[in-house]
Amino acid sequence: MKIPQNSSFSGKIAGDSFVLTAIFSLAVIVATFFVSNANLTFETKTAVFLAIAVSYVFLCAAFYFWQREKSADLKAEQVLSAFNEEIEAKLSALEEANEFFGASLKFSDMFRLVASRIEEIVPFSACVLFLRGDGDNILQVKYAVGENSRKFMDFKSDTNKGLAVKAFLSGKLQFDTTLLNEKRVFSPEMLKKFKTAAAVPLANRGEIFGVMVLYGAAENDFEGNAETLLTAVGERVAPLFASSFALEQSVSNALTDSLTNLPNERGFFLVLENQLAQSIRYRDERPLTILAMDVRNFAEINQTHGHATGDRLLAFAAALIKKQLRQMDVLTRASGDEFLAILPTANEKISTEVTERIRRAFVLTPFRLSERETINLAINFGTATFWRDGETANQLLKTALLRKGQDKSAERSKVIWFPKEFVN
Fold this sequence. Notes:
CATH topology of the largest domain: Alpha-Beta Plaits
Radius of gyration: 35 Å
Strand order of the largest sheet: 2-1-5-4-3
Structural class: alpha+beta
Distance between the termini: 80 Å
CATH class of the largest domain: Alpha Beta
CATH superfamily of the largest domain: Reverse transcriptase/Diguanylate cyclase domain
Order of helices and strands: HHHEEHHEHEEHHEHHEEHEEEHH
Strand content: 15-25%
Number of strands: 11
């Protein structure tokens, strides 16, 4: 990048040089005049003249180095200003996109846009975003683009070491020219295409909330002006990431149950509609079952032992149920003690196996009411399978709740339950 010449810059240096040179020279002339006319011996005058000469040389040398340092500082400011102007021009489109798209611009989309702009300024082979995890000094991979991005995205472990953590704790730009820090976190397979890395801390309102790590394929990828560029980039992209992440978090909170950290009923319908679309498209090859559950006698337990115990019981039940589900299954909390699960690709046989695992888990794992008292909980179940029991979300949920009511009935053997449409 060509740096434009600045006349005020050279003029300021020249002006300072002229003033200081004139002052030094005048001081030497005056000192020499007074010494030469003073009533001193020849030896004394010689010693004084020699001291003046040495002092003059010393001051000239000091002035030279001061001037060179000042010139370098001013040039650095000018270079940084030019860099900032280029970065502002390239990233202004991102700010406009953020304002234009508003709530529709997801954090993942924002990250890809930012990464593409950064690559134009500081070329890289991969860009990985780390955000703060559950611990104070723990980071998690949030998004990645470029080489091995899929492997980075599949890396689910927390990390409290590595270059990203080093930048997070120091709040300063960090470089790893040998990947020594990264090899303590990631496998050789993930890093084999990289030679160097640079970590850029991201701050919002003075607090570090994440780190962006760039990986280069060559050892000299982040040399030269890269430090200045990355510093400026970090200052400008951090607000974009922070606002987009806050928006995503607010949406996530609107779809999450605060007690169990499970998706709520609204989240259930969003996921179910998406899964139903897949099952409708592949009707015979992709079954789908939903599972409705609640805790038997929860109202009595909650009333007898208090709401705090009831809340602990619900959190306990949510965690235990979730452990018995498959990785692809989605567990949600509807209301009260009612849980709804979506079982993609699950037919009647698979859903029966899942419910039996859950029953067995509650038999083997008692809930601790207090330090001395435990209780074995029982779960009521109701299932509904796509196509056989309904083809819409409301039809499936209605059938699953009806069957859960059958399971909940104290006199199931004496009562026969039919869907209302079958009665008519």
